[in-house]
Each structure stands twice: as C-alpha cells, then as structure tokens.
Amino acid sequence: MAPPLLLLQDIHLTFGGAPLLTGAELSVSQGERLCLVGRNGSGKSTLLKIAAGLVEADTGTRFVQPGATVRYLPQEPDLSGFANTLAYVEAGLAPGDDAYRAAWLLEQLGLTGTESPEKLSGGEARRAALARALAPEPDILLLDEPTNHLDLPAIEWLEAEIRAMKSALVLISHDRRFLENLSRATVWLDRGTARRLDKGFAGFEEWRDATLEQEETEHHKLARKIAAEDHWMRYGVTARRKRNMRRVRELADMRKQFRDRRRATGAVNITVTEADTSGKLVVEAKNLVKSFGERAIVDDFSIRILRSDRIGIVGPNGAGKTTLLNLLTGDLAPDSGRVKLGANLEMAFLDQRRATLSPETSLKDALTGGGSDTVMVGGIVKHVASYMKDFLFSPDQLNTPVSVLSGGERGRLILARALALPSNFLVLDEPTNDLDLETLDLLEEMIADYPGTVILVSHDRDFLDRTVNAVVVSEGNGRWQAYAGGYTDMLAQRGEGVTARRAEAKAADKPAATAQVAAQDADKKRKLSFKEKHALDTLPDRIAALERDIAKLQNLLADPELYTREPAKFEKANTLLARAEEERAANEEEWLRLEMLREELEG
Hints:
By secondary structure, the protein is α/β, with parallel strands linked by helices. Helices cover about 45% and strands about 20% of the residues.
C-alpha cells in the first residue's frame, strides 16, 4: 500500500470542557477519495481544519508528505484584502500553476473575476473559494460542504471536474448523490473516534446500522434510563429508514397516478375542476405569464396540483424558481393568465432565507412562543420536550439559547417551528440548505407523513427522488415543463439535466450577439428532431402491433389446460406477455411525451 500523503493519528481536542475528538485518526493516500460523515456536531469540520493545519489538536500527530500540496475549502471564506475575486483565486496558485485555470474556474462557477469582495453574497464568496481550492489541482483537496449554495448545473459540473482531477479528496457534504458519485471510502466520525469503511458512501448506511445494532446488543445491560435516551438519539434515524420501503412504494403509486392524470387532459380537466368541491384541487394555473422588464420568467405555464401531490421545482440559479413558487401560491400576481387556489387552504411557508431567530431566545421559547410548555401540532397538544425529540433534540437542550446551536440544529429548529403551524399546504424553498444528513432523513420522513400537499424548490437530486412525485423544470426562455416522477425519472424522460443560464455580465457585454444566439437557441429548441418526428410517426403502429401480440398471448394463456399440458409453453407465453405489456407502456409514455412536446412547440 502506498504511504499516506496526509496522516492524523490519535487526535484529541476539547472544546468548552467537553471532549470533541478522543483519538480520531485519518489517513489519505495518493488519489484516494474519502467522504467524512457523522452526526451534526460530531467534529467533522474541526477534524478537516486540523488536517488543513488551521486548528491545532490538544494532542496527536499531523503528518504531511514533504512537497505535497493541500488545499482546503472553508464554509465561511474570507476574501478581505483582495481587489476582486480573480485576485483572490490567483493568490492560491503556486509558481508554475496555470494562471488561466483561475479565470476559467470562476467562469464555470458563474463569476467574472471582477466582483468586489465587499459586494459578494455568501454563495458567491463560497464559489470563489471553491475556484481557489481547485485551481492548483493540489495533491490533497479538503472540501467542507462544497455544494452549499450551488445550483444543479454547478453541482453536476463540480462532480465531473473533481472526478477528472488526480487529487486525493476528503469530502464533507449533506448531498447523498454527490457523496455516492465521488467517494471510494468512508470515514465515520462517531463519539470522538473515526472508523473507516473501504467502500463509498453508498455502502455506509447499511454498515453503520449493522455496527450500531451490534454495539447495542453488546451493551444491552447498561442502565435502562440512560440507554433509552441515548438509543433514541443515536439510532432513531435508523428505525425511520427501515420504514421507508413502505414510503417508496407509496411514492411510486403517487407517481403513477400523476402520469395517469396527465393522460386525461383536455375537456375532462374542466369538468373535474368545476365539480371539485371536496378540496381535492389545491392549485390550478392556466397560461401564466410573468416578466421582469424584457426578460420572461414564466411564459404560458399551466398545471393542476391536487391534494397530496408532492411537486418539485428545479432549474439553475436565476431561472425564476422562487417567482414561479410565488405565482402558484398567490403571493405574486401574473402579468396574464390565472391561478385558482382550492378552498380552505392553510399554508406553511419556509423560505430559503430562513426565519430570523433571536440569539438570546431559548430553544423552548422559540418553539412555544414563550410562557408555555406545550405546542399544538396537527391539532394535538404535545409537550415541547416530546416535540423536540421528533427533531433530534434532547430534553436537556430545552433552555439552550439559539446562539450556541450549530447550523444543522438551527435548520431543525426552523423546520420544527414551520411544521408546528396548522397547515394543509407546505411550501418549502430550498429546505435542504445547510442541513446535515440526519436532518434530511427527518425532513424526508416529515414530508412522507404530511397529509397535505407539498411544493418544494431544491437542488438536491437524491432528496427530490425521495420526496416528490412530479418535477417542474425550467426549459429556458421562461418555459417550464412538468415531468412525472422524481429527478432521475425526469432525466430519463427529458434526456438531459438542468442547464446553466447564461451569465448576466456576458449578456450586458454583447447584448445583440446574445439576443441573436438566444433566438437561434429558441428556434432550435422549438423544432422536433428527425429522430423525434420519426418516433412520433411510428410509435402508434408499434403500440398497435404490441396490443395485437398481447391479445394473442392473453387468449393463449386463457386456456386452463395449458399449464398442465405444456408448462414450458405456458412459462414462455407468460414471460412474453410481461415484456410486451412493459414495452407497450414505455412506448405509450414516450409517444405521450413527444405529442405534448409537439403541441407545446406548435403553440
């Protein structure tokens, strides 16, 4: 085995009298791809800072191979003292590094290099810091939540860029898909120590659950009261995961219902809507148009959202996801078109800026409003300590001030406050920002159990796959299209992921050229390809042929004597029937997609 480029041994660190790391270890060899995982507050970011040489451990050894370059992405970068973002990135280059790469990375991340550090948003500062970390192509790359504040095109670009690099990688992220695609080994930081699994994140959760179950068995004689509280806090998410198979099946059923409803468009839609007095209709939007200046944000968009639907909205930054969300909820009036909201809607809204929490407020008062020990949830009065447990808080945190909570804990607290409000319509704008994996598990469970309707905006592909039964995607130029299923289903139907918007600064530099390119792009997008036209013409005949084959096979299998007389022929006919029915369903769905696309493009 190759000697490690970076080695941490027997790392101990205590913060505020409480031990955070008690013998943690980390070894990174050339080209290794590690993900660092653990519960919120377990010390992942601190261990990464020790690896980067930014924090000194109380005891233990840090070794870096002489000559090896290490680059670290902090969660809160400091750009003060630099004239612009390009100067900040170039300052991270070593002699001999490619200076052009700094400008190229900034461009790929949606920056021009001329931005002043004083005027950067938090997300823009993190993108500049990401470019600085990637620019030298270091021997070891230490990334702490690199996908925070990135949109889907940027996340997928970053994934491909890191995969192509030769650097060793240590990665902390809440994005499961990102971890699964990039990691080849997993380091689990738990109760101060680190355990290693020589498999990527895809194999981690099963291994962790088995490890914890074995540990639970070995320690079953511990004091009952302590074990009960510790067990819930440590293993509660595991039990939820085991129940998720039922929810996966339910989500699949909901996706099928959404597909079926899309087939029944036209006049029937109006009849059902007019007759709908039971509260099944939540939102009906017809021919929505919204522009800001000359830029179209929403152009002729229609959708019907029924009770219990879970709708995800995706698109690049600046596409207008929040604007579309506000149009659908009635918070913003369209330029033309109409939105009809269902009767008796009670909405709970969580925006991407999060509610403001006073630092001095205790966790208990933040949930109850002060002066009470109870909270009303779903019409049921619950003690605040019991409700806190639902969000992975322990009872001894009742009087903990908000100022000492971690980012993940604040995210949980805000979710708890939003979900405690009486509602049957949940609207979540970027709910996964800054949340750890445990909180994401909790949020997924809450959405699965929520009896009402959910609309959410997210850049987290795995989260979308686990929660929604339809995805509305920005197609560019103000056009939006709904696809049945989650993010992966949308990819299969659309044939491509979300594409980035053209930077505003470039558009300002060459407005005429940009407008011409945009018009050409729009013309190209508004024409069916030869392959699509051919499929649209030939699929009906193929479907008809399959239906004839299915009818013949069904007649053959209707013979009650066939299985006894010719079991092999029966099995073969049964297999052929299943394949034909599956192919017919796939062809029908493809024809429907192409027909809807044709109707949309022809206006």
